[in-house]
Design brief:
mainly beta; six-stranded mixed sheet; four-stranded antiparallel sheet
Length: 359
Amino acid sequence: MSHSRLGLADAWGNLRSVRFNQDMTAFVCAFQDGLRIFNIDPIREQAHYKEEQVGSIAHAEMLYRTNLVALVSGGRRPKFADNTVMIYDDLAGKMVLEFTFPDQVLAVRMKKDKIVAVCKNQIHVFSFPNKPKKLFSVDTRDNPLGLCEVSPIRCGEKEVMVFPGYKTGSIQMVDLFTTEQRVSSAPVSLNAHKNELVCLAINQQGTMVATASTKGTLIRIWDTSRRVQLVELRRGADQAKIYCINFSSSDEWLCCSSDKGTVHIFALQDYRLNKRSALASIGVPGAYAGSQWSLASFTVPQECACICAFGTQGHIAAVCLDGSFHKYHFSADGICNQAKYDVITELCEDCDWLTMKDN
């Protein structure tokens, strides 16, 4: 490991966005000077598309660990318009599909048979990748953050897509499967928060949705079938911008991260593991006293915004917008220990691109 890799990361301004793939085994980074894809365990660079190939990228989405990557241009040297989603095929080494919309694309979500483009007031759903065709569009309230999540796995005959509802703080859920089959299915709305939404997450099967508002103190978990709140989790008492929420693949745990650089871990199957306020033990009534707090947490040294996701064997990974990568091990008794630190922008030092792309 080089000496510089032990120092602080310095990708501020160059790294535009970071997102995990659907099974949380890799992540994609949109840079001002191109695009990079990283494996998580072990951490290493899998692909590197330079600015001459793809231009400056604002958003990107992987399709599991396949050769297809969705790109939306943006930044200092965009190669394509920001209202266009380009599909890059790593095997072919070129763009193979193009989707153009009336407005700027703020986010892209992919499933094995669908692609979703999120604009400020509309969400567009297409079949994908063979002979793509438009399935439907949904009008939405102003959605400047491009909030929208889709369940990676179809559970029975249900595929859930969740996005902000028309009422402030509400969510709307649409079943992609019934809508695709032209079966009448009224959209489901839930009043999740009093303030505007800032973050959404959905579990693998689409049975649970997590929501957070601009206040940033609470995360609420919802049952998508029964349309009821399952639990309310407290990130903290002070306001923060929740940047990322993710379920573990087994739905046993939930993690969230904020712009303060702290990652919180909650238990979802055994709520007794979550911490409680000392006020509850002395019988003080009220929602705050009865809140469930995270069983474990850690703060990345740079205290900056990051995304977080669960790995294997009790590990959790955090990728920060300064280009730093952190891996911690946590246990049910609330102990967190750092297992790995790296700077992703320097991981290409010893890589052989041709060898790695052939793997």
